[in-house]
Amino acid sequence: MERLLVLVRHGQSDWNLKNLFTGWKDPDLTEQGIREARAAGRRLKELGLTFDVAFTSDLTRAQHTLKLILEEIGQAGLPTLKDQALNERDYGDLSGLNKDDARARWGEEQVHVWRRSYDIAPPGGESLKDTAARVLPYYIQHILPRVMRGERVLVAAHGNSLRALAMVLDGLTPETIPTLELATGVPLVYRLKADTTVETKRVLAAA
């Protein structure tokens, strides 16, 4: 049984390009983001990977990325489940602010803590721990059972919602998770063992 799970962070968004905190705001992909999503689809196709079901968030940039990937692998009609549980971390009062302006206002160290710590939330927003508290139950209830049944599952989501998943899959701790960076449009191909732990992981970075 294959037990295939592929995670992809959405391609570059308009607000990524403008260096803005995005969170639950809903900008679409840039032209570069569109190219990244299509390239991700091509790399999956080169490996001969197809899917039985896809999951994505409630936000346009992740849905658009998924749509482009599925077009590239010839599965445009794939059954897809969308849920806010997979949304990006909510940056609260930082949402829409330029990251450099935020550093000028609150200081480099404080902004770094908000962005990269595990359990410290920005004002009015979520910490990574808070994000994991909604992502992981959804994964356990809806995504993992399909993988364990042998369905090939594709998830297109966001940097922090996928970091929460990778924390579990890769066995990271609150101390080591801040070092994990997920590039836009780069598929992470996991194959799981019968006990739900990772058998193999492959990062399909651009050549």
Your description of this structure?
β5 (187-192) and β6 (198-203) form a beta hairpin. This protein has helices spanning 14-17, 31-46, 60-72, 99-106, 108-116, 128-148, 159-169; strands at residues 4-9, 53-56, 80-82, 153-157, 187-192, 198-203. It is built from seven helices and six strands. The chain has 207 residues and is of the alpha/beta class. Helices cover 40% and strands 14% of the residues. The chain has one domain: Rossmann fold (3-Layer(aba) Sandwich). It has a six-stranded mixed β-sheet with strand order 3-2-4-1-5-6, sandwiched between helices. The radius of gyration is 16 Å and the shape is globular. The record marks 158 as: Transition state stabilizer. Homodimer. GO terms for molecular function: phosphoglycerate mutase activity. Its EC number is 5.4.2.11.
How is the secondary structure organized here?
Layout: E1 4-9, H1 14-17, H2 31-46, E2 53-56, H3 60-72, E3 80-82, H4 99-106, H5 108-116, H6 128-148, E4 153-157, H7 159-169, E5 187-192, E6 198-203
Parallel strand pairs: 1-4, 2-3, 2-4
Antiparallel strand pairs: 1-5, 5-6
Helix pairs in contact: 2-3, 4-5, 6-7
Instruction: Indicate the CATH architecture.
Output: 3-Layer(aba) Sandwich
How helix-rich are the residues, as a percent range?
A: 25-40%
Alpha-beta classification: alpha/beta
CATH superfamily: Phosphoglycerate mutase-like
The largest pleated sheet is described as: 6 strands, mixed
Spatial extent as radius of gyration: 16 Å
- The top-level CATH class is Alpha Beta
User: What is the strand content?
Assistant: 5-15%
Report low-confidence residues grouped into runs of 5 or more.
none
From the 3D structure, determine the CATH topology: Rossmann fold
> How many independent structural domains?
1
Strand order, largest beta sheet = 3-2-4-1-5-6
Strand element count: 6
| Average pLDDT score | 96
Helix count equals: 7
Principal-axis shape equals globular
Distance between the termini: 30 Å
Topology as H/E string?
Answer: EHHEHEHHHEHEE
Catalytic activity: (2R)-2-phosphoglycerate = (2R)-3-phosphoglycerate
Family: Belongs to the phosphoglycerate mutase family. BPG-dependent PGAM subfamily.
Binding site for substrate: 9-16, 22-23, 61, 88-91, 99, 115-116, 159-160
Site (Transition state stabilizer): 158
